[in-house]
Amino acid sequence: MYREIPNYRQSRRRRTILTRLLSVSLIVVSIGVSGCAFHQPGLGNTDNATATPVPKRSVASWPGKRVVIPVPEKMPTVKAYQHEIVRLKRLLTEKDKLIQSQATRELDPDQTQEQTLLRPASGVSQAKSQQYRLATKPEAASKIAEVEVSLNMLKQSAVAKYNPALLSLVQSFLDAALLAYEHADFSSAMSYAAQSQEGIEMITRLTEKSYEQQPTSAILSTPLLLQTKQNESLKIAPNDNAETQSMLAPNTAVTATTYHGYWLRIETRDGRSGWIRSQSIDARINLPNQENEN
């Protein structure tokens, strides 16, 4: 009996130790299982996943949200100017086509046809006159220098010998431009320089074909202010066999608006119009210290 007591105590102690170890093991296992259940999300469940920070989007990037940004080209004022520019360009193109179609049309001696042919040239003449009134000294100097270069090149070419009369006319207009510039009359200087340039271009075009092979009439973009050298027949059409409608006295002031070959269509101050040869006219110069030729 004395020996059984220690054995009983030892077995009881062992039982207590085993019980505690088992409890600790159960606690550890339960903690592990609960930890796995907390960190392992379900396959179809995305609510427990860690949320990724979403960058803030601007108002312009919101779906369905339109943000109107004022672009200069879309401003009302700029749009209005653009429409006006387009309209003016279209109008200018139409006018150019009208002038070209009339310039390439065969000339009809009928008076109504001649008046129709003159209308575009008259409009150009008025526009040029308004432009010349605003001419400045630098503009006049630049224009005169440009014409001088063109005339020198023309004189050095083979073209010069074919049109001595027209070449002399061109030189007269250039001299008048230089004289007007010296008198600070820049409006007249621009006008005469432009007429000289027009004569140079006319000579160049005429020499591209023989004397009487110019098939159509051409409108002068700058009307030429001229006067007759002597008694001259005013023809109803640009050829020698055409009927003479009247005679022009020497020094009669005329304005040339159209040419056909070496013929010029002119108007007089008293309202007569017709065709004369370009060899029968001089430049009409009206400047200070110059006599007014009528």
TrEMBL record:
<protein>
    <submittedName>
        <fullName>SH3, type 3 domain protein (Modular protein)</fullName>
    </submittedName>
</protein>
<feature type="transmembrane region" description="Helical">
    <location>
        <begin position="21"/>
        <end position="40"/>
    </location>
</feature>
<keyword id="KW-0472">Membrane</keyword>
<keyword id="KW-1133">Transmembrane helix</keyword>
<keyword id="KW-0812">Transmembrane</keyword>
